Every structure is written in structure tokens, then in C-alpha cells.
Amino acid sequence: LNSSGELVWSKSFPTGDGYSSEIRIGPDGNIHTFATTEENYDDFATALKYDVSGTLLWDTKYSIDGSSSGMGGRIDNNGNIYMSASEYNSVGFVKLNPSGKVIAKQTYSSDIIKNIYDYSIEGNALIIAGASYNPSQGKIISLQTEDFTENYNQSASGEKLKILTPYAITSDANSSWFSAGTKDEDTSDYYVTKLDNSGNVVWQAKDTYPGGFSGFSYLEHDGSGNVVGFYSNQKTAGEYTSSLVKYDVLGNQLYKVMLDSAGAYEARGLAIATNGEIFISGLNTKEKKMFVSKYTSTGTRTWRKFYQSPYASFPVSVPLGMKISPQGKIVILAYHRGTNNVNDLHIFQYADDGTLEWHKDVDNAAGNLVSLDGFEIESNGDIVVFGKSGGTFYVLKKYDSSGNEKWSERKILASRTDSRSMAIDDLGNVYTGFSTPSSLIIRKHDANGNFLLQKSHSFTSPGSFFYPQALVAMNNQIVVLGQHYISTTAIPFEMLLDDQLNEVSNTIQYNTEYANFTDYSVDGAGNIYELWQTPTYKGAYIYYSGVKKMALNPVGISNVELLNNIIHLYPNPAYDQLHLRTEEKGEFRIYNVRGQLVLNKQITSTHNSIDIQKIKPGLYIWRINNNQGKLIIK
Q1: Residue-wise DSSP of 518-579
Q2: Which of the listed residues 155, 184, 214 is the one where a domain comes to its end?
Q3: How many domains, the chain?
Q4: Distances from the Cα of 343 to the Cαs of 126, 331, 373, 405, 420, in angstroms?
Q5: Domain range spanning residue 275?
Q6: Do 282 and 349 share a structural domain?
Q7: How far apart are CA 117 and CA 138, in angstroms?
Q8: 302 shares a domain with 172
Q9: pTM of structure
Q10: 580-627 pLDDT per residue, tens
Q11: 162-179 pLDDT, tens per residue?
């Protein structure tokens, strides 16, 4: 193109299919293109040289040992060309003179250098920056430009960064805690981090164990400022080291209980009673038995009970979720293999003394794909379970505290629609969340299992799939915490719905490169905490654990008796004009659901017209302060 952007000439590569990877201008003004081209089903790193008129002067192909991909090129002040190539287990460099003739080569195996991040010519040296494969560490290699004799080969030093994976979060009105772990070839590190109300780190505790597969998925506070964690470290296939650990308000470790030195116990559940007693569940991987244990607040085990599924050849009973009822019952949801040799979603209820009171299949289906998408225990001990056994049908079922089924729904919504999350509001209404390729779906049932309504939600985006990872019901509102996928990138979002499932607002973080939703928590003040893993690319991916705190509805949404219908506000919903008829005199205000004042008007007559054209569509709270100090909110 000329300086005005007009086409002067256009050339294509002379050899089969290919794609350009880099263009560089030589000291003589000629144009060098570095590409991967294909010939007879083999790929070649290829350099092509054109003059300023677009005439091809030469092209040179280079292959290490078979099929090679081009990794770009560099040109020195004398017009010599340095081109790089990559294959599965090796990388290579080749030097060409200005006429395209190969005059030097150098090849490295992947244990020396596998990934090339950058390279440059510095004086008489070609400096290469990359990373080796085994062990995985940064590399700097220097070659003489004359003949590619190696000047030095230096590995990166210092402490290697590890991938930090967040697992669980818990919170009270004053603090939040989250757990995380790292994976390495030989050891695993475990962390518990305490944050104050502003998100500042108060303390961080660390444990290290041999083995390379960490899992710290269970963390709960005890209501007294202490926090309890239950985690597993997989040393080898089927061999786990599991520990129960407790920290005080200052981060001091009060105790650590290792469950079994033989490495047979895998952590699968944790719950803390109001008196501080601790219950855990898990799997004995060697004997294929589920276990449930009770500990005192000081870490002394009171009892441990085992259960084995009735399928003799390969018994399976693995806890998926665990809670304590207000009546002190221990409820566990598990995937379980019965005598039919099929994995089903199964429910257990234990008494405080470890007696197994009852257990049964939640759903019995022909299929082995089992998921628990949510379960809640109500104040009277009723249990609501949401999940699936067969991978296609979902089941929503309610039991009383004796295990009797009160109501049930089992169905398929649509193709590629999957159950994801559940919440129950103060009235006992049940909300369930589903993902689809183009939207999320929320369904509402009343406390008796009657279906009330269903609505789909999405937002304008080039992506697909909306995963409602968690639902939170509070103050006549439903909060949706989720992930949305654009290509292979997961984008976090939050959505607020009213109790009729209408969208009030949504927030999506398009600037996040990738974020993996892990867990959430709600404190006693109604604040919501989200736990994420977010990588940042700086030559390599660095993984961070992120916590977000959100507060909803500082004004409050409530229905108040409207003084014998002396106040009339219509139409509702309104679009241009809002009409207010009242005998009250005073000030009329409108707030959004985040507590921000958007309009105020003095009430001077019994019939008032209010212009709302400048207010964005959404859900609002109106408030009247009359001249006698009375406050009315709706």
C-alpha cells in the first residue's frame, strides 16, 4: 500500500496453502515474509523475499525433522536472515544469507527449550528467550551469529511460581476467609486467607504436604471468629492425606487432625453446628466406604460411622454435599450405586449420635451421570433437593424430616439445557437455574411444589452459554452469579431479578481475560462474596485468587400496609407519566434498588403527575415522607 492506503500490488505465496506469520523490512528495503507453508501434506517454516515492486526474489523452506511450523524471523544489518521453527519435541534456528542460502543451523530438544517467546540480534549474538518442557522453567540461550556456536544456555533461577487454585469461601458480618492450594510435582501448599470488611488481608496460614494434587474445598466459620477447614492431598491414584484444621481469630493454628496415615480418606464435606461441633464426610478410597464423623470444637473425634453401597462388585457411595438441619440432623447427598449397578443421586440422614435414620434414591435413572445442583434444609427440617441421575432428566424433590416425599418434579426442559443451581426464599418458594447455549432459565415453584413461572434471560454478546452457577434469594430478589463464554474465555456476570423473575439489572466483566467461578458465601448482613480464579498473561499465565464483595438493597424493599388504600400510584409499570393520588402532603422520592436517589418531588395536591421519561427502565422503590413525619415505602 502507498502512504494513502491505496493498493500498489498484492502477491500470494507460490507454494500450496499457507499463512503469514511475520513481515520484516531488510536494510536494503526489500520485504521478507516468514510463514508456515504446506507442500505434500508437510509443513515448512518458509522465508520469502520480495523487492519493492513485489517481485519474488527467492523463497527458502526449512524443516527440522518432518513437519515444522514457522516461528518468525529477524534480519541483521548486513541483510542476513535468522528464522525459527518448531516441531512437537524440538525447536530449530537457521541462518540464511541475503540470497536465501542456508549457512548455519542449530536444533534443540524440548527438555532444553520447547517454547520460543522472543529472540533478537544483539551485536554478534542471537539471544533467545523461551522455556523448557521438563523441567518447566525459563531459558535464555545465546548463539554466535556467525556459525550458531553456543555462547551460553542459562536456566531461570529463583522460586518458581505455582498455579494457585481457590476452592472455598465463608464469611460472617465482620470477615471473610477463603481457601486455596497449589499443585507441584512433589508437594502441595494449602492456604487459608482472612480478609477484613474492606478486602484487606488480615492473615494467611500455610501448610505443605508431599504430593502434587491439592484440594481444599471445605471451609466454614464457627460464628465465634474461628475458621475450620477440611482438605485432601492426593499423593498417588487413590491415596489421599486428609486433614481437619482450625485457626483462631488471629490466624493461630489451634489444631490439625490427620484422618489416616495410610492415605485412604478423601475429604468430601464439612458442616459446623451452632454449638461449634464439627461434622465431616468423605470416602475411604481403599475400602470403598462413605464415612461420617463428629468432632468436638477442640478437635476430638466423638464418633465415626461407615456406609457401603449394596453393589458388591464395585460399591460406590461418594458424598456430594452436606448440611446440618436446625433440628441437628446431618443430611448428605451422594452419588450411590445400588444393586442395579447404576449410579444414582442418593440422600442420607443421620442423627446427632451417628445413627443412620433413613436413606433413599432421590432419582433412579438409567445412566451414570450424577450431579447435585443444590439442596437446602428449611426451618422445619424439610429438605429440598435439585439434581439429576441420568444426565437428561432433572429432578426437584422435597422431603420431610422423616424422609417422606412431599412433592416432586422430574422432566426435561429442552435439548442442551442443564440444571445448575437452586435457592429458596423466606416464603419457601423454590428457584432453579438452568443453562442453555443462548440464555439462562430461571423457574419458580411455590412451597407446595406448584409451578408458578419460568423466564429466560441473556444479554447482547458475541458469546454463548450462560451458566447460573449460584442463586441467592433475599429481600424479594434473586441474585444470579454466573459465567458466560465468549469463545473459550469465561466472563463472570451478576444478574438481579425480582420475585416475578423480571430482570432488574446485570453486570458483566468483559475486561476479564478468564475467570473461573469457584464458590460464594452470604454473611449475616446480606453481603455476597464471590470467589474466582483469574489468570493474567505476562509471557506466561500467572493465576490469582480473587474475591468480590457485593451489597444489595441498602434502602430495602418491603410491602407496607397502605393506610386503607388512600395512596394510588398508577400505571405500574409506567413508561412516560406516573400518576400519584393521595391525601398525604410532603415529599415523594424514587430510589433504584442500589439505594441511589433518582427523583424527588414535592406533593402539593391530591393528584400529581410525575414525568419519568428520563429514568432508565428497571425496578424502583418509591417513598413518601409526609409533613407529620410518617414514612411509607413500596
Answers
A1: EEEEE-TTS-EEEEEEEEEESSSEEEEEEEEEE---SS-------TTTTEEEESSS-SSEEE
A2: 155
A3: 5
A4: 59, 19, 16, 21, 19
A5: 162-308+514-552
A6: no
A7: 10
A8: yes
A9: 0.68
A10: 777 667 788 888 776 777 888 888 777 788 888 778 878 888 887 776
A11: 677 889 999 998 899 999
